[in-house]
């Protein structure tokens, strides 16, 4: 009987594991970044309407669901009357509360009571027209007429992004799909450059 001191084929010798090098720093850093939890993002939905009804409740649920899917924690969905002072107060309260996104729904048409863009403009420090333009463009592509004819605006107030959307289900659904990656980009910039 012959004895062979070499390890059997397919088996790893125990000393081989001890001889392995440490992983390099770049690999460890990349691994940590990949496994890092997503940043905590907060949002508030402001529904502007003179007729709080079933549609407003549906929009509230839809916005909350879509924001959660986009990685936001929704602090709440509030309904306000189509009065410029009430809309502005709701946006300002959210900004002071430190949310990352205020999403207003409704009040962006051409009717005499549609005052959301004006109330929003009063609160903004910087306009970010590209977001509103993207919402109108995608609204036209998906056939949401109220989205593509919206007077909605977007911008930044303090460290909060504010976006106006039209109130139809199609406008909300398409608007959220368009807005989510843009808002995440803006919030990243605001957090990176905050003092």
Model description:
There is one protein chain. By secondary structure, the protein is an alpha/beta fold. The chain has a single domain (41-192), classed as MoaB/Mog-like domain (Molybdenum Cofactor Biosythetic Enzyme, Chain A, 3-Layer(aba) Sandwich), CATH 3.40.980.10. 49% of the residues lie in helices and 17% in strands. Strands 2-1-3-6-5-4 form a six-stranded mixed β-sheet, with helices on both faces. A hairpin with a 2-residue loop joins β5 and β6 (160-165). α3 packs across α8 and α4 crosses α5 (116-123). This is Molybdopterin biosynthesis protein. InterPro entries: MoaB/Mog-like_dom_sf, MoaB/Mog_dom, MPT_Adenylyltrnsfr/MoaC-Rel. Keywords: Molybdenum cofactor biosynthesis.
Give the SSE layout.
Layout: H1 14-18, H2 25-35, E1 41-48, H3 54-69, E2 72-80, H4 84-96, E3 101-105, H5 116-123, E4 126-127, H6 129-142, H7 145-148, E5 154-157, E6 160-165, H8 169-192
Parallel strand pairs: 1-2, 1-3, 3-6
Antiparallel strand pairs: 4-5, 5-6
Helix pairs in contact: 3-8, 4-5, 6-8
């Amino acid at each position: 009987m012959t004895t062979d001191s070499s390890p059997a084929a397919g088996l790893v010798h125990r000393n081989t594991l001890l001889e392995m090098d440490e992983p390099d720093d770049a690999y460890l850093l990349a691994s940590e970044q990949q496994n890092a939890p997503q940043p905590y993002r907060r949002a508030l939905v402001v529904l502007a309407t003179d007729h709080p009804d079933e549609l407003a409740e549906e929009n509230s649920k839809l916005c909350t669901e879509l924001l959660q899917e986009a990685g936001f924690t929704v602090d709440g969905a509030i309904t306000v009357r189509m009065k410029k002072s009430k809309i502005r107060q709701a946006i300002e309260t959210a900004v002071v509360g430190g949310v990352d996104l205020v999403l207003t729904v409704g009040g962006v048409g051409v009717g005499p009571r549609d005052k959301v863009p004006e109330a929003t403009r009063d609160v903004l420090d910087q306009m970010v027209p590209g977001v509103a333009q993207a919402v109108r463009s995608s609204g036209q592509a998906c056939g949401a007429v109220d989205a593509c004819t919206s007077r909605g605006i977007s911008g930044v107030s303090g460290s909060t992004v504010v976006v106006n959307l039209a109130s139809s289900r199609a406008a909300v659904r398409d608007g959220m799909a368009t807005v989510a990656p843009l808002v995440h980009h803006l919030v990243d910039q605001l957090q990176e450059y905050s003092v």
